[in-house]
Design a protein that fits this description.
The complex is a heterodimer of chains A (510) and B (131).
Chain A (H helix, E strand, L loop, with lengths): L1 H13 L5 E12 L2 E6 L7 E5 L3 E8 L4 E6 L10 E8 L1 E4 L7 E2 L16 E4 L22 H6 L9 E4 L5 H22 L7 E8 L3 H13 L6 E6 L5 H20 L3 E7 L1 H14 L13 H9 L13 E9 L8 H9 L2 E5 L1 H5 L12 E2 L8 H7 L2 H15 L7 H17 L9 H12 L11 H13 L3 H10 L4 H18 L1
Parallel strand pairs in A: 8-12, 10-14, 10-15, 11-12, 11-13, 13-14
Antiparallel strand pairs in A: 1-2, 1-6, 2-5, 3-4, 3-6, 4-5, 7-9, 15-16
Chain B lengths: L2 H16 L8 H13 L5 H17 L2 E7 L3 H10 L9 E6 L6 E6 L2 E6 H12 L1
Parallel strand pairs in B: 1-2
Antiparallel strand pairs in B: 1-3, 3-4
Helix pairs in contact in B: 1-2, 1-3
The chains are: A alpha/beta (510), B alpha+beta (131).
């Protein structure tokens, strides 16, 4: 009891008792989470505005005779004629390590029932992206644990890699797999006691999703033990458009804290299509002029200013990074839509997922031809680069030849060999969801494929063989995997050990 | 010029016509303008009237000071605020109202700006800090 009264006394002592000054206005219109306020002549752009019953809004439209505010939270208690007043503050969210393992809303308030968040710092949701001087090129890998991605479309820390595809093609699964893999690597790194180890913390921003989907994601992260490294920012479909518009910026501010404090972070925006739709809704209610597909003119800036905040900082600026995995949903596989082309042009590459591949059972359904990573290959570890260098080309050639071979009955030996190899690689890349593979195991499997260890196995048994090899490498072949993990290279001696390990496995598998 | 701009310009001209001595809105002039508009309604009559009303309200709020207080005498508080150059007695019209919801203290509204030093405001600050 005493401690509570002490706490209250302490809080009261710190309060300012000076006369307060504020700038006020009157609500003249309320609609769909947007208020038009007459007055507020001194309000600033993006300033938080206070309405009755502790409802907050953000001033987005500053006009000659009124101010357009988007409202956050429950607006049902507001009415015309209510007083709105300026706060002199920009919308800020709590940041720091205390947010890990928590689920928060767009304003950073906890919604997981685990009590208040004791964050010591706050960051404004809208910030200017790092300039040219504090940045450096991507040079450290960020392993997704997905063989098809890590080998052909490698991602580096600080990169922005778009995940794009139709609905139900496995976009979120790739992002969740990446988060789970970071947690696994983090745990492995912490156990190893390596002082130079840099864990990757994750932020998952759910925009306009069903609450059931968010709950499922949380459950998966908890079951896989990844939640302790993750913060989830949720603005579900039932939330008002203002919260859906702000959620990615709030998540980004949380990620920036890690970056600016010399740590590495990964942020997933799931998804930016719905984010653009929420912004379109706000803009139309604010009566901003609309353009293509009724989106406002600044919809490119909406995403560019968000994704530009992901960066790799140089040593003078803490050496931190913020990697972004934005997700975009296409309609009927059309990547030439307005929002998809915008985000493709902003990001450093894309992972394109095809419905046809997904329906054929090739999962992850990564389209080799349309997927690219513009900067990530510079960050790939040497051992992996050595074994995965030719895979993308081989697979692209396979897809082309496979299309032609449908009309050809008599094929030459070289074409047959390429088709055979391609089919095996496709099978090798098949991977179940939420089951990321460590990079050293991936390297060993790829090495086995490149050195014809899978050639004598039937194509339809390749997946089984890969699973068996994976099990072997995490048990008997642990030493050689550790060698690859520690050195990051494939020395001659390592290759010899790898060969003998794979020969041993082949005998057991046969 | 867009039709909106025309409405804004006409409304501004009407406001200029409504201002009398001491830079204050003259009610006689406003009545005369409204009569004239009623007899000879221009295009976009309602939009012009709405805009004119807004401009008149905004102009009046620049010299009308609303003083809400609880405890003490309204004229005393006004005089003390004038002495401290908080309010210009000559340039403004002060309307003092006794307001029990403040509990004690005062609240001055000049245009959009509100200055408040009251117990109710302090209690509200405490409530916000403890929430």
């Amino acid at each position: 009891m005493n401690s509570i009264t002490d706490l209250i006394r302490k809080e009261i002592e710190t309060l300012s008792v000076d006369a307060s000054r504020s700038n006020v206005g009157k609500v003249t219109m309320l609609a769909d989470g947007v208020a038009r306020v007459e007055g507020l002549s001194k309000v600033m752009y993006n300033e938080m505005v206070e309405f009755p019953n502790d409802v907050l809004g953000i001033a987005l439209n500053l006009e000659e005779d009124s101010v357009g505010c988007v409202l956050l939270g429950d607006t049902s208690s507001l009415k015309e004629g209510d007083e709105a007043k300026t706060t002199g503050k920009l919308l800020s969210v709590p940041v720091g390590m205390d947010l890990l393992g928590r689920v928060v809303d767009a304003a950073g308030r906890p919604i997981d029932g685990k009590g208040p968040i004791e964050a010591k710092e706050e960051y404004p949701v809208e910030r200017i992206a790092p300039g040219i001087i504090p940045r450096k090129s991507v040079d450290q890998p960020l392993q997704t644990g997905i063989m098809a991605v890590d080998s052909m479309i490698p991602i580096g820390r600080g990169q922005r890699e778009l995940i794009i595809g139709d609905r139900s093609t496995g976009k979120t699964t790739i992002a969740i797999d990446t988060i789970i893999n970071q947690a696994k690597i983090n745990k492995q790194g912490e156990q190893s006691g390596n002082k130079d180890f840099r864990p990757v913390y994750c932020i998952y921003v759910a925009v306009g999703q069903k609450n059931s989907n968010v709950a499922r994601t949380i459950k998966i992260l908890e079951e896989t033990g990844a939640m302790e490294y993750v913060t989830i920012v949720s603005a579900p479909a039932a939330d008002n458009p203002a919260n859906q518009y702000l959620a990615p910026y709030a998540g980004c501010a949380m990620g920036e804290w890690f970056m600016e404090n010399g740590r590495d972070a990964l942020i997933v925006y799931d998804d930016l299509s719905k984010h653009a739709v929420a912004y379109r809704q706000i803009s139309l209610i604010l009566k901003r002029p609309s353009g293509r597909e009724a989106y406002p003119g600044d919809v490119f800036y909406l995403h560019s200013r968000l994704l530009e905040r992901s960066a790799r900082l140089n040593e003078d600026n803490g050496n931190g990074s913020l990697t972004a995995l934005p997700i975009i949903e296409t309609q009927m596989g059309d990547v030439s839509g307005y929002i998809p082309t915008n985000v493709i042009s902003i990001t450093d590459g894309q992972i394109f997922l095809e419905t046809d591949l997904f329906n054929k059972g090739i999962r992850p359904a990564v389209s080799v031809g349309l997927s690219v990573s513009r900067v990530g290959s510079a960050a790939q570890i040497k051992a992996y680069k050595k074994v995965a260098g030719k895979v993308k080309l081989e697979l692209a050639q396979f897809r082309e030849l496979a299309a032609f071979s449908q009309f050809e009955s008599d094929l030459d030996a070289a074409t047959k060999a390429r088709l055979d190899r391609g089919a095996r690689i496709v099978e090798m890349f098949k991977q179940t969801a939420f089951n990321p593979i460590p990079v050293e195991v991936q390297t060993a499997i790829m090495w086995g494929m490149q050195n014809d260890f899978f050639d004598s196995i039937d194509v339809d048994k390749i997946s089984e063989a890969v699973a068996s090899l994976k099990d072997y490498l995490s048990a008997q072949g642990k030493e050689v995997c550790n060698e690859i993990y520690k050195s990051g290279k494939l020395e001659e001696s390592t290759e010899q050990n790898l060969r003998s390990a794979l020969e041993d496995w082949k005998r057991t598998f046969a | 010029m867009s039709s909106n701009n025309k409405v804004f310009k006409i409304a501004q001209l009407l406001l200029n016509q409504s201002i009398g001595e001491n830079d204050r809105v003259d009610s006689d002039k406003v009545s005369a303008i409204l009569n004239e508009l009623r007899e000879n309604p221009p295009a976009k009559h309602i939009e012009i009237l709405k805009r004119f009303g807004f401009l008149v309200r905004r102009h009046m709020s620049s010299y009308q000071v609303s003083l809400e207080f609880k405890g003490g005498d309204g004229s005393e508080i006004t005089n003390s605020l004038c002495k401290k150059n908080f309010i210009d007695h000559h340039a403004t019209e002060v309307q003092a109202v006794d307001c029990p919801s403040l509990i004690a203290g005062f609240r001055v509204k000049i245009g959009d700006d509100v200055y408040e030093d009251s117990i109710a405001n302090r209690l509200n600050n405490v409530r916000k800090a403890l929430l």
